[in-house]
Write a structure and sequence with these properties.
The protein is an alpha/beta fold. The protein is built from ten helices and eight strands.
């Protein structure tokens, strides 16, 4: 793809990941805004937190940027205390908790559009919790939830299912959610939704770099691929990023790279294969980068350097 543009998961590459600093984040956003390859951010829906208050976003988000809002940090947190919570839960109470949280998100989107005085939210990224086997899922439960969400006014925002690694008996899962085939089945049944893929999560599910390609091919064949996020992982034990863990590992760099890891599954060959697979889509998916700098003291310089080198490697 010529001159690709990206949504950056700014919260995962934040220079103040633990104790949020409005000053550091302002410098971070200002530097990101200078790069024309960046067209927006993946923004976490985290109600009742001091991170990214709306007034701060209005002051620091460039006028040409949009937001893709993800619910995964919220649902991961809720799942720790309520393992039956999720849009696909067979437990009616657990399913209702997830739907109610998305009612809050619906109001948040309306509030954002009001404060920005423009349709600043492009898409919502939803996940098919609960995590299995702690919770039990069904496609019928997911269909009920997605149908309920369609009754809300989303003000033209895209609703997309973000596929995470599926539960596979006998394999240690990172998320352990529904299979891609089940998600595709329900979307075809009720309509109105697309699918978002994340390179690392597909690789983790397959235990192979072939996973992302298989998932790209499948979603394109069903005309459902709406977005694709580059995020790496390691097949080997890695001190910073672990083995088959969804820790947002950056792509592999070369000997000239100052910030990128030298090993990992998302290497040059895997990147080329991914672009070839994505090129088969009749309409291009929006692209994103979701990475974290682990094992180092965070800083604005490191965050920006890591993202810039990642975009350079992905574009070669």
């Amino acid at each position: 793809m010529k001159n690709p543009a990206y949504y950056i998961s700014a919260y995962t590459s934040s220079p103040s990941p633990v104790h949020w600093s409005s000053t550091e984040e302002a410098a971070y956003f200002e530097a990101l805004a200078e790069d024309p390859r960046i067209i927006g951010i993946e923004h976490p829906f985290m109600p009742h937190t001091s991170r990214y208050p709306i007034e701060w976003l209005v002051s620091h988000l460039p006028t040409h940027w949009q937001l893709c809002i993800t619910t995964v940090p919220l649902f991961m947190t809720l799942a720790q205390e309520q393992p039956h919570m999720g849009l696909a839960s067979v437990d009616s109470h657990g399913r209702q908790i997830a739907v109610d949280k998305l009612k809050e998100l619906n109001q948040y989107v309306e509030t954002l559009h009001h404060h920005f005085a423009r349709p600043v939210v492009k898409a919502i990224h939803l996940q098919t919790f609960p995590r299995q086997p702690a919770g039990k899922s069904s496609v019928d439960s997911l269909a009920q939830s997605l149908t309920a969400l369609q009754q809300m006014n989303w003000h033209g925002v895209e609703l997309n299912i973000e596929h995470c690694d599926a539960y596979i008996p006998g394999q240690v899962s990172e998320k352990g959610l529904l299979t891609l085939s089940d998600e595709i089945k329900i979307i075809h049944q009720i309509g109105g939704y697309g699918i978002i893929l994340n390179w690392a999560r597909s690789a983790i599910e397959y235990r192979s770099a072939s996973g992302p390609i298989a998932h790209i091919d499948s979603t394109i064949a069903h005309d459902l691929l709406r977005g694709f996020f580059f995020s790496g992982c390691s097949a080997q034990v890695n001190a910073a990023y672990g083995q088959w863990q969804d820790t947002h590992m950056p792509p592999c760099g070369d000997q000239q790279s100052l910030w990128l890891p030298q090993t990992g599954l998302l290497d040059r060959e895997a990147i080329h294969a991914t672009w070839r697979a994505l090129s088969a889509a009749s309409s291009p998916a929006y692209l994103g980068i979701k990475i974290t700098d682990r094992g180092h003291e965070p800083s604005v310089v490191r965050s920006i350097g890591l993202l810039q080198e990642s975009m350079n490697v992905l574009s070669r």
